[in-house]
User: What shape does this take?
Amino acid sequence: MISLSIPVDKIPFIRSIEGRKFRDGKWLFPESSYETLVKYGLLDKEYKVEKKEYVQYELSDFLYKHQKEAVNKALNEDGYGLFLDTGCGKTLCGIEIAKHIGKTLVLCPLSIIKTAWVDDCNKFYPELKIINCWSNSKQKRIEALNVDGNIYVMNYESFKILKNEIRKKDFKCMIVDESSVMKNMKSQITTDILSCIDFIPRRYVLSGCPTPNHNLEIFPQIKFCNPDMFGNNYLGFQASYFHQNLENPHIWYQTQDDKDKFFKKLSEGSIFVNKADCVDLPDKIFSIKEFDLEKEQRKYYNDILNDIREHINEWSKFEFTAKLMKLREVVSGFVIQKDGSVSDFKTNKDKILEDSLNEIGNKQVIVWCQFIHEIERLAEKFNGVALTSKTKNRDDIIRGFKNGDIKLLFTHPKLLGKGATFTNCTYNIYYSLSFSYEEFKQSQDRIHRIGQTNKCTYIILQGKNTIDQRIYNCLQRKGNAVDELYLEMGLKS
Assistant: This one.
C-alpha cells in the first residue's frame, strides 16, 4: 500500500481511486494507483513502489499446468478468485491451497461435500484430514468442528447455523466453492460470508461461472477475497464499470470500454481458465435421433399448442412456462393431471431410447430427463437406477456409477450439475432437454472433463415438429429457451 497525506483541496482527485482507505490520519492507496497519484501531482514520480516477491510454490505433481498456475497465483495473495471452467479441476486447486496454508474452512453445495471434496481429498491427499461438518443435528455439526483436522467442509446452510461457533476457531483460510451463491449483495448468505473478512486472514473463491446473469454479480465475491480491489462501495463500483440505461434506470450495461476496464481490474485479483484453452480433451460428438408422435399424442399436443397461441398475450411468463412443460410431457408420452395423477400415452420415444441403448451395448450411460415420472418409469423399464430429488442414497448411487457397479443412470441435470466427475462414462442420452443452457452445458461436462481420454457422445431424442427441436436450437445459441419462445410466440400471435 502507498501511504500519503492528502491536502483537503486535493481530495476530489482521489475519489475515483478504488481501494483507497483513510486510517490514522493517512490515506492508503493500492499500488496499482501509482500512475494516477503521479498524474495528479500527489506522488513524486521517483517514488519507488516495493514490488512483492512472487514465490513459486512446490506443488503436487499430479496437478495440471493450468491448475499449478492458478494455485501459485492464489498462494501469492491473501485473497484470490479462481474461476475455472467446469471440468478444469477447481476442487483439487482448493485442496492444494488448503494444504499450503493450513486449517481451512470450505463452503460448498451439499451435493458435492462427499462426492467431490471428501472423496478427492482422501484420494489425492491422504496425508490431509478432511472433516465433513454436515449433519442433521446442530450438535453433531459443532462436534465435527471440534475434531482436529486440516480441512473442514460444510454446506451453506450449515455455515449459517454454525457462524458463531466458526468465529471461535482459528481458521487460517476460507474457501467458498460455487461462489455465485453470493452474487446478490443483499442476500443473507452473502452478508454472513462477508463477515468472515474480519477474522479469517486468507480467503478464496472457486467458480466455473461466477456471474451467471450479470457482471455486477462479481462484486461481493471479489470483496470477500480482496475488500480493497473494487472499493467498499457497491454503488461506486457500479458507476465505475457500468452505464445506466436512461430509459430504464434499473438496467445497467457495459460498453466495450467498460468491459476492457472491468476485466483488466478483475485480472489483478483473479484468474479465468477456459477448458478449451488448457486441456487437450477428446472430441464431443452430437447425434440427433428423431421420432414421430403417435396419433393420440399429436392431437393432445396440437390442442395445447393452439391454446398457447390463443392466450399467450394474456398469460404471465410463469403461466406460459407451465404450458410449455405440458407440451414436453406429451412429447415424452404422458400428462400430469391437476389432481397429480399421470396419464400415459403410447410413445415412439421409448423405442428410440431402446435402439440407442442397444447400439451402445454394455457401456455406462447417463440418461438425462426433466421429470421425476420419466426418471422412475424409464429406470424400471430399462433396468437402470433412478436418481431423483426423492432419492435418499444419492452419494451411494454416485459412487456406484463411478466404480462401474451401475451401468445405466437416469437423472436430472440439477441433481448432478456441479462437482460430479464421471470420466468412466462416455455416453449421454437426452431423453428430454432443459430450458437452461447452463444446465445443458453442466450435464455435458459431467463426462467431458479432465481425465477423459475417449470421445464423448451425446444423443438427443427429438419429436418431429415439436418443441424438442425448438428447445435444442435455443440451447445451441446459448440462449434461454423460455425467454426466446415467449418472445417468438407472442409476436406471432
